[in-house]
Design brief:
This protein is mainly α. 57% of the residues lie in helices and 0% in strands.
Length: 83
C-alpha cells in the first residue's frame, strides 16, 4: 500500500523543486541591471512619448470578461462535442 504513493511523492518533489531550480538558474545567469535607460521601452529608435503602463477603467475589464464569457459559453453548450 505504501509503495503506491511513491510516484505521487516523486511528483510532489518535482513540482516543488522546479520553481526553486528556475529561480536559482535565473539569478545565476540573468544579465545585470545597469540603469534606468535600459529599463525604457524600445520604440524603433524613437524616444518614448509617455509611460507605456497606462491605467484602464474598471468598465474595460468588465466588458472584456463579458466578452470572454459570451464567446466561451457556446462551445460548452453542445453536449458530446469537444474542440
Amino acid at each position: 500500500m505504501q509503495s503506491a504513493y511513491i510516484p505521487v511523492l516523486l511528483y510532489a518533489i518535482l513540482v516543488m523543486a522546479f520553481p526553486a531550480v528556475t529561480l536559482v538558474w535565473q539569478s545565476l545567469f540573468a544579465g545585470i541591471y545597469v540603469g534606468r535607460r535600459e529599463a525604457q521601452a524600445y520604440e524603433c529608435g524613437i524616444p518614448p512619448e509617455s509611460d507605456a503602463r497606462g491605467r484602464y477603467s474598471v468598465r474595460f475589464y468588465i466588458v472584456a470578461m463579458l466578452f470572454v464569457i459570451s464567446t466561451s459559453r457556446p462551445c460548452s453548450s453542445f453536449p458530446g462535442d469537444s474542440l
